[in-house]
């Protein structure tokens, strides 16, 4: 089957295509002439994922899905959460979507804080033949004291999943995909698509 993944993020596309393999052929909004930023201004991950998928569906009429991810830190009452991409920018500590600035701010807010518990949560919204479905994936772990590793993207260098000694940025993609928030949400999406 063919399906549009509503993302402009090459890393995400790679991760998800890797998991879906030959079960579905993914295209991106750009492949359908949609080059503008897709709006995502809802107060929840679910709201943003649905907003992005609906935007693509309304423009193309094609089956599609979108994801939204947040890093939820216990000692910060779930922040940065839905603001993860713009964490530094909304706090006046950087511009746009800079992973470097976001990590720097998070490490600064957690300086001297003993509770490093955090989780990544991904919500995928699927629109299939006009009907909407949601899938969630969570991975629990800890925020490290400093950055380690060069793989992955975003907050990967400072997130160490439970049960592992390495951060996501120190893992091969195949391992991250097996245990990550997006990997788990994508597995649910794949199961749904293959069993329908
Ligand atoms: P969004 O889902 O693209 O809106 O991502 C929200 C924020 O979380 C961005 O700052 C991303 O860089 C970050 N993020 C999303 N997925 C991951 C991941 O798998 N690892 C690390 N950071 C991520």
Please tag this protein with its features.
binds inosinic acid, globular, 7-stranded mixed beta sheet, 6 helices, alpha/beta
What do you see in this structure?
The protein has helices at residues 10-20, 45-60, 87-90, 99-109, 173-179, 181-195; strands spanning 2-5, 25-27, 64-73, 79-81, 117-128, 131-143, 159-161. It has 196 residues and is an alpha/beta fold. Strands 1, 2, 3, 4, 5, 6 and 7 form a 7-stranded mixed sheet that branches. Strand 5 (117-128) and strand 6 form a beta hairpin. 38% of the residues are buried. The structure holds inosinic acid. Inosinic acid binds next to strand 3 and helix 4.
The total beta strand count reads 7
Total helical segments: 6
Biggest sheet character: 7 strands, mixed
Span between termini: 12 Å
Reading the helices and strands in chain order gives EHEHEEHHEEEHH
Q: Give the rounded overall mean pLDDT.
A: 95
- Rounded to an integer in angstroms, the radius of gyration calculated over CA atoms is 17 Å
| Proportion of strand residues | 15-25%
Structural class: alpha/beta
Q: So what's the overall shape?
A: globular
- Tell me which ligands are bound: inosinic acid
Question: Spans of 5+ residues with little confidence (pLDDT < 50)?
Answer: none
Approximate helicity band: 25-40%
Topology:
Elements: E1 2-5, H1 10-20, E2 25-27, H2 45-60, E3 64-73, E4 79-81, H3 87-90, H4 99-109, E5 117-128, E6 131-143, E7 159-161, H5 173-179, H6 181-195
Parallel strand pairs: 1-2, 1-3
Antiparallel strand pairs: 3-4, 3-5, 5-6, 6-7
Helix pairs in contact: 1-6, 5-6
């Amino acid at each position: 089957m063919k399906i549009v993944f509503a993302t402009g993020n090459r890393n995400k596309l790679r991760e998800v295509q890797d998991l879906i393999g030959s079960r579905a052929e993914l295209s991106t909004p750009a492949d359908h002439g949609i080059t503008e930023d897709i709006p995502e201004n809802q107060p929840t991950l679910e709201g943003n994922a649905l907003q992005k998928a609906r935007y693509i569906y309304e423009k193309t009429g094609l089956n599609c899905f979108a994801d939204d991810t947040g890093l939820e830190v216990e000692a910060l009452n779930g922040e940065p959460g839905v603001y993860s991409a713009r964490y530094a920018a909304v706090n006046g500590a950087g511009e746009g979507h800079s992973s470097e600035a976001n990590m720097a701010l998070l490490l600064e807010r957690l300086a001297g804080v003993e509770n490093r518990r955090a989780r990544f949560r991904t919500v995928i919204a699927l629109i299939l033949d006009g009907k909407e479905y949601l899938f969630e994936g969570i991975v629990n772990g800890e925020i490290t004291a400093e950055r380690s590793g060069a793989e992955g993207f975003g907050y990967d260098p400072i997130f160490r999943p439970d049960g592992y000694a390495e951060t996501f940025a120190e893992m091969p993609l195949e391992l991250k995909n097996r245990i990550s928030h997006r990997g788990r949400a994508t597995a649910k999406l794949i199961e749904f698509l293959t069993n329908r």
